[in-house]
TrEMBL record:
Binding site for CoA: 17-20, 43, 100-102
Keyword Ligase set for record: yes
Gene Ontology cellular-component terms listed: cytosol; succinate-CoA ligase complex (ADP-forming)
SMART domains xrefs: CoA_binding
Name of the protein in question: Succinate--CoA ligase [ADP-forming] subunit alpha
Organism per entry: Streptomyces alanosinicus
Gene name per UniProt: sucD
Lineage: Bacteria, Bacillati, Actinomycetota, Actinomycetes, Kitasatosporales
Active site residues according to the UniProt entry: 249 (tele-phosphohistidine intermediate)
Length: 293
């Protein structure tokens, strides 16, 4: 089992013919992802040869869905065109849109995430590494060879910390790893993934990675307290971050005591979440929880 992405998922790549799209489409194909087409209105009717595998290019997401039955799209388009790309995908009825692009204006993200919710499309991102169900499918830029299938579900704001925890826990493995992105507005929240992992019968433990800024982790803690029965282990990046300074992601800024790593740690621990102070300690807590004694 997995959440949002399985080996049956049929994936389009918006921006496949660009530099980043070509590079990461090649990596996704190597990971076993069922890439059924790319989207570029100027190159419709052409195809791209990925080491002997021809992937067709469609003029629109709707055309690609009609021709292939695609049910997911990965967006590799420049920030100025990202809103249009996601709105197009949502209007076509795509169930899942994974937006890798960073630097998208917040007002554009607000607009396309709201539009996607109205049409019933799930957006993951923007400014995210995507998601991977090891051994089945990889939609985005997450390295596919650093872990294996297993019982851990992971949801994270940070791409690099996603990779590190995947590697540190590679001997146990993961059901699905979701990088939700670190922008102030994202399409899928910690809570959305917590709910999905709670319902996934093959996810035995959930790892939640947050960071300073905002109150997403505090809200996730309240949700865990009320709705999650599976063990949750957390890590918050930014314990040593200076107050009032943006650190890394656009959403990683604290004001006074609001949004600090310590406040988030306290909220999670009050809800029964074991919180590590480093990624390595977090991995150890996972191992102890899954393999007591």
């Amino acid at each position: 089992m997995a959440i949002h992405l399985t080996k049956e998922s049929k994936v389009l790549v918006q921006g496949m013919t660009g530099d980043q799209g070509l590079r990461h489409t090649r990596r996704m194909l190597a990971a076993g992802t069922n890439i059924v087409g790319g989207v570029n209105p100027r190159k419709a009717g052409q195809s791209v040869d990925f080491t002997g595998q021809d992937v067709p290019v469609f003029g629109s997401v709707a055309d690609g869905m009609r021709a292939t039955g695609a049910d997911a799209t990965v967006v590799f388009v420049p920030p100025a065109f990202a809103k249009g790309a996601v709105v197009e995908a949502a209007d076509a009825g795509i169930p899942l849109a994974v937006v890798i692009t960073e630097g998208i204006p917040v007002h554009d993200t607000v607009a396309f995430t709201a539009h996607a919710r109205r049409t019933g499309s799930r957006v993951i991102g923007p400014n995210c590494p995507g998601l991977i169900t090891p051994g089945q499918s990889n939609a985005g830029i997450i390295p596919a060879d650093i872990t294996r299938p297993g019982p851990i579900g992971l949801v994270s704001k940070s791409g690099t910390l996603t990779y590190q925890l995947m590697y540190e826990l590679r001997d146990i493995g993961f059901s699905t790893c979701v990088g939700i992105g670190g922008d102030p507005v994202v399409g899928t929240s910690h809570i959305d993934c917590l709910a999905a992992f709670q319902d996934d019968p093959d996810t035995e433990l959930i790892v939640l990675i947050g960071e300073i800024g905002g109150d997403a982790e505090e809200r996730a803690a309240a949700y865990i307290h009320d709705h999650v029965t599976k063990p949750v282990v957390g890590y918050i990046a930014g314990f040593t971050a200076p107050e009032g300074r943006t650190m890394g992601h656009a959403g990683a800024i604290v004001s006074g005591s609001a949004g600090t790593a310590r406040a988030k740690q306290e909220a999670l621990e009050t809800s029964g979440v074991r919180v590590g102070r480093t990624p390595t300690e977090t991995a150890r807590l996972v191992e102890e929880t899954l393999r007591p004694g």
